[in-house]
Amino acid sequence: xxxxxxxxxxxxxxxxxxxxxxxxxxxxxxxxxxxxxxxxxxxxxxxxxxxxxxxxxxxxxxxxxxxxxxxxxxxxxxxxxxxxxxxxxxxxxxxxxxxxxxxxxxxxxxxxxxxxxxxxxxxxxxxxxxxxxxxxxxxxxxxxxxxxxxxxxxxxxxxxxxxxxxxxxxxxxxxxxxxxxxxxxxxxxxxxxxxxxxxxxxxxxxxxxxxxxxxxxxxxxxxxxxxxxxxxxxxxxxxxxxxxxxxxxxxxxxxxxxxxxxxxxxxxxxxxxxxxxxxxxxxxxxxxxxxxxxxxxxxxxxxxxxxxxxxxxxxxxxxxxxxxxxxxxxxxxxxxxxxxxxxxxxxxxxxxxxxxxxxxxxxxxxxxxxxxxxxxxxxxxxxxxxxxxxxxxxxxxxxxxx
Length: 402
Prior knowledge:
Layout: H1 3-14, H2 16-28, H3 37-49, E1 55-58, E2 62-68, E3 77-83, H4 110-126, E4 134-140, H5 149-155, E5 166-177, E6 181-183, E7 186-189, E8 191-200, E9 204-205, H6 215-233, E10 241-250, E11 256-257, E12 260-269, H7 272-292, E13 296-303, E14 308-310, H8 312-326, E15 331-333, H9 343-349, E16 352-360, H10 380-398
Parallel strand pairs: 3-4, 3-5, 5-16, 6-15
Antiparallel strand pairs: 1-2, 2-4, 6-16, 7-14, 8-12, 8-13, 9-11, 10-12
């Protein structure tokens, strides 16, 4: 084992209880996107205790701090990012540190991400005098809500004084057992756009449908017709997901045909040209079906996050560092995921890698992200800070050339 790995693992072990306390505080006090004021203050307070001087309120509630190395601190910069917003989900884990904010929960592991980056920061602060270069710590709000905290922070001058040379982030993965890490070179996560339909018919009495134009029937035909976007228009080698997740018949009831139906959904893909083509197809099908049935359809497409595309060299570096830190048998190459992440906007500007850390406790029931029963194996709060710190120090040493 390299001496630096031994030192980092010892530091991660010594601070483990503190990182667990940080994570449990965050878990008890979740805040929704663009409302994370107390979380911002908590993060800044911990960073100040480490001797850092954090900037707050970047892009609303974002936080950034610099760890300047003892050797040529301006020569190179590696950025580390964690997100910290929660979701509008009622927790049902029964944990003693469950959410104290009704209807809001850290159901995507952002509490684990933030506590882990704070833990990595504490390790790096202890080792800063031997660092050649600097580390930028980015604590990002509102990852779960458009336009996304990454864009909000960058638009608010996050990189106005310094653009990092590399940037890294990880996300917990409940499908992967604790102790394992995964990553993928190149295209990894999809672009995402939100879709909002308003189908307008003519309401009336449920017993006299011939006197109405039923928007529920029209909307249902639109949903069925849209399935051909993926099944008959997407090439087999072009991963695409189209999901309608909400349908609301406004004013309808058992014997009332409403005037209007609203629907919401997403379209996800990887290719920029195909992404635009899906927009055209969805609009054509939606309006065409509605017009053929005597109704109207308005469609708003809210263009969201870009695909996450990992830099090959950065990703290979994370892979090699994970192998050294955890053992080759605990590191794996991952497949494409149709989930989306606004880390893509950082990656568009800076060579990057977005990787995964397993949080499933072997032998326990599986609970997925964005579910009210998500449970994190807290042993990951020792592994993640150590690995993140080691990868950052290795990146400063190796200095990927572009």
